[in-house]
Inverse folding.
């Protein structure tokens, strides 16, 4: 197999995600519980990172009145229900984002443990899913993708691949493809239309996704994200809520597509390569 063929192989994208020992239901439940707690931390990241605030200090507090949350006010899902979705101090409503992100974190880790078993693959898939949740929500809400997340994804992709020569090559190939493809599209769109179609954050995110998913995973992600973004844009135009100049949070679509590529990528990629194979 040539170097070019190896970079396009399933192993280059998902080879390091080989499942470990099967996880018993108790470990899946433990993963869900941990995911709920990490989802609570993601709410802090989503709220503070776009404003360049520390995500570790001060402790969690009400955004409306600054009331510092006690331990029982910060229990994932339970506190939202117990407090009737309102701050105990000022009675300001608690956004539905908070329990939703917590639930997504719990579901992501439970799925990772169930699908990847007990081992490094579950750890890598869990952390990647948490990265994607943060990216998707921040870009949808603020139209920005913090560099900390993109750079973190790139470094994490290298770490997950073991820093071996083959792993580093797969990661660099995926990252370079992300920069070249999305960077080229952004430059072309700017030259032709005179406005920005893709932001620098999208390009950096694509590099991080490519490092984690490899070249085949990145290509699949770009295909899915482009299709989803096109459908969403056409739907908004049809409903009169957008036009050809309306900017969409492409990072959100990239994050969703990357999650699909993580879970179903090997099966889809094999089917795609079969379609590309020349008929005898």
């Amino acid at each position: 197999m040539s170097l070019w063929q190896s970079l396009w192989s399933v192993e280059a994208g998902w080879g390091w995600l080989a499942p470990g020992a099967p996880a018993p239901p108790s470990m899946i439940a433990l993963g869900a519980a941990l995911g709920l707690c990490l989802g609570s931390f993601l709410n802090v990241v989503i709220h503070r990172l776009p404003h360049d605030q520390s995500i570790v200090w001060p402790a969690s507090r009400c955004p409306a009145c600054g009331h510092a949350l006690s331990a029982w006010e910060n229990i994932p899902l339970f506190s939202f229900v117990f407090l009737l979705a309102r701050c105990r101090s000022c009675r300001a409503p608690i956004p539905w984002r908070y329990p939703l992100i917590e639930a997504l974190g719990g579901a992501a880790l439970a799925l990772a443990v169930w699908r990847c078993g007990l081992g490094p693959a579950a750890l890598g898939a869990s952390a990647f899913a948490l990265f994607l949740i943060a990216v998707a929500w921040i870009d949808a809400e603020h139209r920005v993708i913090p560099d900390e997340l993109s750079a973190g994804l790139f470094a994490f992709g290298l770490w997950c691949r073991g820093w071996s020569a083959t792993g580093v090559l797969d990661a660099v190939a995926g990252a370079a493809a992300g920069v070249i493809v999305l960077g080229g599209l952004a430059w072309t769109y700017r030259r032709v239309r005179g406005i920005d179609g893709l932001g620098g954050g999208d390009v950096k995110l694509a590099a991080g996704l490519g490092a984690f998913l490899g070249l085949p995973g990145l290509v699949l992600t770009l295909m899915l994200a482009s299709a989803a973004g096109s459908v969403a844009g056409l739907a908004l135009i049809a409903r009169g809520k957008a036009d050809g100049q309306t900017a969409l949070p492409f990072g959100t679509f990239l994050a969703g597509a990357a999650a699909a590529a993580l879970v179903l990528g090997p099966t889809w990629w094999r089917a795609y390569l079969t379609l590309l194979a020349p008929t005898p």
Notes: The CA atoms of residues 186 and 197 lie 6 Å apart. The radius of gyration is 20 Å.
